[in-house]
Every structure is written in C-alpha cells, then in structure tokens.
C-alpha cells in the first residue's frame, strides 16, 4: 500500500458526491456540512482488517475520509470493483455495515477480499530476460524481492556485467557518476555499500556485478554464453507465448534450441554500435587512428604523442582523462559544437537532490569550473533561457560528459577545444586539417563520434512501434535502453540505478498485471509512440531507441496511473538521497574531487605545465547546496510533503 495514499480518491457514492471544492454534498446540491463549516482535515489512521483472517493494514487518513474513498483506494490497488467490498464496524455489542458516505473511522473490517496483496496472472512458462547487465540483474533482484522466481536470464557473455561495460568501455574506463547512484544493492531492503570511493574502474564494476549476482542467488537463473537468435509470438493477450531460438554464443556450430516463455524483457544496454566515419587522407596519415572504445586502441601508444580526439560527448571526455593518464602530449578535442560537460560536484548536487534541481541552479553551480576555462555555459547551443537567466531548459543531443579532468586539462594548457562547424576536412602526413582550414600536427587520432542503436534489437523483438517501453501495445514484450539526449528544465540525477530500479518495477508490474495495461493505460492514449527513424543521415534510429522526452513522459504517466508505482517513486527518491549522503557526504566528496585534481596537477607539473587549483572550496560547495535546499523546501512545501522535507533536512550536515 502507498505510505501516504491519496485521500480524495472518490468523486461519487450512491447517495452523495463531492463538488469541486471537495465538500460532500447531496444529490440535489445541498451541502451535508452546515454552512460556514468544513470537513476536518486532521491527520488520522485507520486499521483495516479482512474478515475471517488476521490480516490487517493501517493506512493514514484524515478525519473526513469516507468509506468510499478507502474502497476506491483498495479497489485500485487490487484491481477489483469498489462495490464488491463491504465495510463493517463494531458498534456497541453489534456489527453494522458502514455506508459509503460515512467517515471511515478508526477500525474497519472488510468483506469481499482475501488479501491486501493483488493476485498475479499465472503463466505456463517462465519470463525471459535478455541481457545480464545492470538492468537485467536489477530485474532479477526485483522479481526475487516480490517472491517471483519463474524467470531465466540470457546473455551472450560468459559472465554478467552487460555489453556497456564488457564491450563499449575500455579497460581504463571509470564510472563518471557516483557509486551512491550506481550499484546493484540499490534498494531500501539492502545495506548501504561501505566502499565510498565515488569512481570505480570498469574492472571493479564488473567484479561488483559478479559478486552481487552470486551473493543474491541470481547466477542459477542465468544461461550465459547464450545468444537469443529469434522470437516467435503466438496467441493473444494473457495467453500470448513467445518461442525463443537459442544458440551457444561461443559455438556457432552448436545446434539451436527452442525455449518457451510467457513474456520477454530485453535490456540491450546503451546504444550498441559506434558511429563510424572515414576521413579523406587517412591512408596518408601514418600515425595511429582508432575508435576510443571497445579496447580498439592500446593507449600506451599515445605516450608523449599529440592526440586529436574527434567528438565532444561523454566518451570523448572520458578519453581526455585516459590520454592524460597515459602521459600523452598535447590533446585537441575537435567538435562541430560544444556539448555541456558537467563538473563532478554538480553531478553530486543533482544526485543528492530530493525534489529535482532546477536547470538554473544546475548551470550556475558549474560557474567556478567554466570560469577556469573562459567558457560561458549559458551561451551554449543547448541552452534555451530568458534574458535574465532565471529560467531555462537544456536540450542537448548528447548526454553530459561528467568529469573535472576536462576543465583541468584546458586550464593547464594540456587540452585545447576546437569548435569548427565544418568538422574535419582531411588528413595528411602527421596532420589533421579542420574544415575552417586550421591544421593540427598530431600523431594519434581517436574517433569518439557517439553510438547508434542496433536494428537487430527491433528485428528480434518484432518491433513495429514502441509504445512507452512496450512493443506493439503488448505488455509482455518490454524493451528498455537508457533514453538518449537531454531535454529538461530540472534534474533529479545524472546516473543509472534510480532509472534501473524504476524500469524494472514498471516491467514487473505489467508482466504480473497485464490487464492494467489494457484497462488503465491503453484507453488513455497517453503513452508516447516511436517508430524506427532514418531521417538523420548516417544515424538510423531503431524504434527501441527513444529520446529523453519519450522516456520521461512514459515514466511520469505510468507512475501516476498505477498506485504501487507511484508509491515506489517516493521510496526510490528516499533511497537515492539516503545513499548519496551516507556514501558521499559533501565534505568527503569535495576532498575526493580535490585529491583527484591534485593527482593530475602533479603529472602536468612534471611536464612543465602550470595552472589553477581545484575551484570548489567547502564554502562554495555549501553555497550552491544552500541554494538547492531553498528550492527543495519551496517545492516540497507546495507539494504538501512536509515529511519528505523533514527526512531530507535531517540528513544535512551540521555547520
């Protein structure tokens, strides 16, 4: 049940109805309460008991909550009609049926239901989960949390961890966001991790996934080194089944197998394929040319050499750090236009938020870093703001690259950002020529042009149209890859675990209760729809690859439509805030940032470079935190959520 269920659930009862002011009135419009009086809104509690059992549930109410309000609340949760329930209460020595228009009272017994938990749809076959990465493992943990064990996980790799970390990341890659919002034990029932270092390496993360899968008993449900080659859909609605064609990924000559499932959930990881581009004159270049991903390049080859990184997305920023780590020479970041790069402190500020951080505060908090490099982030193409810069929306095609090394390397003269709308004209012997004519003497070229979706995922799932995150209006075919782009005027975070747990819970709910999808979701027409799109030349976008607006709209609507998921949204926010402050308290986090900054400063000094110190003092960090606290207080006060505000403020450090 929701921790704080909505009080005014009903608009009608057999004899009375509520008008727009929520006063209870008779059918002829006469108010039940006397003129000049209002129904009491004093907080109360009601104990509900199922007749003939010991099952009870205590819910928060107000004095004026009616029987009908509670009937609708219970009915919505259990998927039954409100009028199938009868509420009775003891009055003196007798039991009396309570009318729908009466106040609910302190103790009520309910006839007509057997449990406060909704029954699930029973299926003849297990649920198939394709992908043993972050969301796939999280999905398994969510199923097991709610005592659902009839599922199987398939993955091509011999070990868990997912394509993003096994294939796309390099062995030198590190987490850009904080571990407080990126770990598998991300649930209110699980302990907070003790390792507070914010940015683990790729191999450390893969070890974490393997250890957690073993500790929580997920591995026996996994069929690793297994490629799902095809899917056949048979039947309709609840009776639909899905026949999977399986083959051993490490033995393409092995005989294919058939495996029946009653639902399929595909988690293909982030965008799967690198966007590739060949430049005129590559055969003349004579140096190293490669893609800075998939471990295509031995970074030891960049030592002492000038490097051109082509691109300005998150992976390009990550490669700046890697080149610095391997003692490269001068680095040039060549792009058609600059994307926003996010300082680590600002990422932390967003991830610790209770109500979302406004885009205005998000950008203003970047100022100390951007001042070091002489850029005005408010002038970037992705910012849409008023003249006073008091309101803004960020609309950026690429996700934020997060890291301080980008700003450090520019301010110390190690990195130069070259913004050229004409892109790359050609290569020559040890030379890269920009479209505007500037020539760069470089020995290595790293292409970081972003990723595109894999059409194979659409083919496998038989996607004609993605409706929310569901395939072709089918609640038992579910596919989620992290939405691309940034489209927001406020930010609740920059990391993955909050999304992963929500996506897993959404998928589970409609797998267990598909009727809700057909009865509550589809008739509204509110879910966004996306078909494969080839309008962007060279960047075919399969149907399963959706943008941030599509993803956000889906989550907002589904969260509002299903009470259980609405409740979980509030709980997940508390998990996020609590873990961020437990693992990354502000003073400790700033110290880690400063320590990492100083590590690279020492490297650059050895190269004869000089530059500024870490720009965020404790005072500055607290200044922007205080700005956010004021925003949060106003937002939660307006939303009528004093308990959430008290919870958040209780985590704040004493100063």
Automatic annotation (TrEMBL):
Similarity-based family: Belongs to the FAD-binding monooxygenase family.
InterPro entries referenced in this protein's UniProt entry, alphabetically: FAD-bind_Monooxygenase_sf, FAD/NAD-bd_sf
Species annotation: Polarella glacialis (Dinoflagellate)
Record's protein name: FAD/NAD(P)-binding domain-containing protein
């Amino acid at each position: 049940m929701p921790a704080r269920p909505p009080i005014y659930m009903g608009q009608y009862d057999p004899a009375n109805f509520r008008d727009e002011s929520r006063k209870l009135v008779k059918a002829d419009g006469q108010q039940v309460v006397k003129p000049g009086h209002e129904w009491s809104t004093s907080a109360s509690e009601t104990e509900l008991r199922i007749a003939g059992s010991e099952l009870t549930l205590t819910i928060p109410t107000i004095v004026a909550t009616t029987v009908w309000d509670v009937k609708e609340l219970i009915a919505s949760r259990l998927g039954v009609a409100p009028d199938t329930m009868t509420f009775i209460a003891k009055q003196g020595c007798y039991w009396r049926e309570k009318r729908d228009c009466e106040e609910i009272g302190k103790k009520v017994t309910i006839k007509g239901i057997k449990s406060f938990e909704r029954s699930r749809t029973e299926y003849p076959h297990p649920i198939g989960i394709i992908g043993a990465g972050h969301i796939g493992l999280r999905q398994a943990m969510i199923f097991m949390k709610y005592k659902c064990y009839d599922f199987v996980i398939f993955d091509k790799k011999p070990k868990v961890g997912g394509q993003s970390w096994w294939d796309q990341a390099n062995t030198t890659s590190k987490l850009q966001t904080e571990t407080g919002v990126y770990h598998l034990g991300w649930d209110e029932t699980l302990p907070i991790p003790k390792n507070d270092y914010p940015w683990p390496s790729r191999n450390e993360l893969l070890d974490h996934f393997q250890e957690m899968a073993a500790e929580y008993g997920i591995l026996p449900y996994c069929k690793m080194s297994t490629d799902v080659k095809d899917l056949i859909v048979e039947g309709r609605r609840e009776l639909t089944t899905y026949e999977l064609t399986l083959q051993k990924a490490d033995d393409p000559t092995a005989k294919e197998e058939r495996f029946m499932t009653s639902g399929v959930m595909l988690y293909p990881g982030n965008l799967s394929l690198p966007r590739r581009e060949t430049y005129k004159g590559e055969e003349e270049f004579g140096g190293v040319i490669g893609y800075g991903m998939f471990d295509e390049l031995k970074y030891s080859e960049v030592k002492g050499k000038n490097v051109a990184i082509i691109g300005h997305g998150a992976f390009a920023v990550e490669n700046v750090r890697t080149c610095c780590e391997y003692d490269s020479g001068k680095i040039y970041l060549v792009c058609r236009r600059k994307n926003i790069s996010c300082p680590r402190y600002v990422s932390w500020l967003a991830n610790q938020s209770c109500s979302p951080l406004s885009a205005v505060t998000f950008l203003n908090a970047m100022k100390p870093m951007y001042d070091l490099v002489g850029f005005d982030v408010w002038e970037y193409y992705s910012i849409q703001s008023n003249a006073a810069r008091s309101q803004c929306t960020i609309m950026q095609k690429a996700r934020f690259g997060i890291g301080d090394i980008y700003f450090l390397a520019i301010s110390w003269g190690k990195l130069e950002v070259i913004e050229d709308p004409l892109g790359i004209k050609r290569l020559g012997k040890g030379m890269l020529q920009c479209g505007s004519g500037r020539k760069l003497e470089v020995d290595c070229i790293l292409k970081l042009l972003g990723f595109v979706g894999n059409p194979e995922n659409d083919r496998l799932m038989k996607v004609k149209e993605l409706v929310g995150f569901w395939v072709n209006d089918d609640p038992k075919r579910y596919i989620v890859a992290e939405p691309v782009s940034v489209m927001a005027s406020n930010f609740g975070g920059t990391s993955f675990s909050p999304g992963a747990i929500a996506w897993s819970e959404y998928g589970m709910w409609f797998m267990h209760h598909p009727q809700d999808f057909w009865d509550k979701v589809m008739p509204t027409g509110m879910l966004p729809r996306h078909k494969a799109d080839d309008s962007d030349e060279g960047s075919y976008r399969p149907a399963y690859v959706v943008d941030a607006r599509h993803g956000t709209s889906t989550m907002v609507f589904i969260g509002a439509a299903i009470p259980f998921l609405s409740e979980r949204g509030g709980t997940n926010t508390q998990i996020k805030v609590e873990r961020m402050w437990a693992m990354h308290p502000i003073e400790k986090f700033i110290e880690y940032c400063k320590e990492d900054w100083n590590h690279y400063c020492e490297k650059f000094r050895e190269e004869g470079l000089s530059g500024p110190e870490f720009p965020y003092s404790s005072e500055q960090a607290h200044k922007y935190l205080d700005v956010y606290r004021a925003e949060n207080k106003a937002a939660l006060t307006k939303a009528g959520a004093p308990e959430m505000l008290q919870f958040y403020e209780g985590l704040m450090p004493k100063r």
